[in-house]
Fold this protein.
Amino acid sequence: MVIAGTGTKGPEQAVEEALNAANLSIEDIAFTLATGYGRNGYEAADAVMSELSCHTRGTRHIFPNVRTIIDIGGQDAKVMSVNDKGQMTNFLMNDKCAAGTGRFLDVMATILQLDINDLEKEAAKSENPVKISSTCTVFAESEVISQLSTGVSMPDLVAGICESVAIRVSSLAKRIGVKEDVCMSGGVAKNGGVRNAMSRVLGVEIHYSPMAQLIGALGAALIGYDKYNKLKKESN
Amino acid sequence: MAKEKKARRPVDPNSAKYKLGKIVEDHYRELQEAKDRGEKIGWCASNFPQEIFQTLGLKVGYPENQAAAIAARGAGEKLCVHAEDSGYSNDICAYARVNLAYMDLKDVPEQNMPQPDFLLCCNNICNCMIKWYENISKELDIPLILIDIPFNPDYEVSDEQVAYVKAQFLAAIKQLEEITGKKWDDEKFKEVMEISNRTSRAWLEATAYTKYHPSPLNGFDLLNHMAVAVCARGTVEAAEAFETLLEEYKQSVQDGTSTFRGEEKYRIMFEGIACWPHLRATATGLKSRGINMVATIYADAFGFIYDDFDGLIRAYCKVPNSINLEKARDMRIDIAKRTDTEGLLVHTNRSCKLWSGFMYEMSRQIGEACDIPVTSFDGDQADPRNFSEAQYETRVEGLTEIMEMRKEAK
């Protein structure tokens, strides 16, 4: 996974690494579908699709009974409603700012000098999560710093941070209507601290896959495969 | 070599576009001429009955229209920042900030308007307007006539509400006579009322043409035409211009043509004031995907039909922001169903807390009642800083993908 690089630089690097890992060359690729915020800037794409549809398709592939998908990525948070055919029927996205997104957790992990992957471990040790109430990421950062100076334990602080993300995003899920099975996708799904908090707040089991961060890409590949087959069929 | 600029085709002087454009141009010109003659001119809220000063023969300017024009021409941020530098919070309405900055700057080439001698405000559109107008009144030391038209929690307008508001308007007319020296004439009012009804009928009939497949108009056209419905509905020119518009739409339906360029693949309702600073981005995001806006509350909101002074008061008591959620919802459901709307795109307009606030729940109810997908995007009617094109694109794309999937499933 390549997590940085603007314009075509990041995607090109990712494609190169993926081809090397699979021992393939670009000529072996019949169809490319781009998704995510840089999708329209990737010139080699044969088609583009929003990450909303790609996450829906990818999640459905792994969890056939999914009806609600909570996708928390780096730049935004989304909740998708899915019908019994696996089609997205409606969605809601976060408004106004970065609160409740993966970037919020990145910022908090940095000021706590923790690896983002250690947040789950720390949160699990918490006995009394603190309340992080600021909706602004920068203000929440100052809130965390002041909590630290009052001697709050690291696990309680981390659990509070995870809970604040869960509370913000769960309100999107409640607005659109929570139907089980509920699944999480996107990088934040890997964080058990947020996942467990979300499960508590919504009162439902949250399903997730260890490859949650790749589900959008998986969905894009599946949709791309369908589109390619459709084109092939039409040209015959 | 620099690209040659395409010459604009001259607009046909018999077309609605020309006539409507001329009304807006004349409106600002006549306002300036009245000011230059030494007449007292006003600034006025958009939902204040235009018929009252049309009857009195007064000229007024509309800060909301002016702010929209300034924002659409790219100066919204400059004026918002000027207001914030003067101490106004960036949380208040951007139309208010633009106008309060304009009051201070007095010259903004994007859209000038002479300074007022009196103010006419009614709070049927929002309550922020009260403080906004009070500030102008205090700063410029000019009289403010404020009509209190409370938010109506009931479904219908009661006789008591009409009586409460009517008494205020009768007092306001007296005050206006004293301020300007002009005289109210009942016969003249009847004439204006007839013209205003004629304008409204033509407007309602023309905007209803979005029910056709394809719609003969790009719904974004209405956002421009609306300015005339606000500032000139009691004039013969406005009635004639909208009648011309109606004839053009009739002809377009017969010919199968439309001002929406390209194939109309999807039909949506657009909710909220236009995101004027990013009009191109928001319109292109729809047009490039074959999405036409065929439903908007503006279509019905500026069609005031009434038979007498009481009827006029009643009409202004039920403008969109002063009615309860159920009535507002039902009006929209009716429009959406009439026009075969396939999706709802809501502008969460950071300027308009009232409108955006109740859209969270209302859009959910509309979506359910019409069985259509709903999405929203953050933006603002005049402050460009509250909009992200990438976020807008993703949401519109998601909406399109749902509409496409539903079409395929049919």
Q: What stands out?
A: The longest strand of chain A covers residues 77-82.
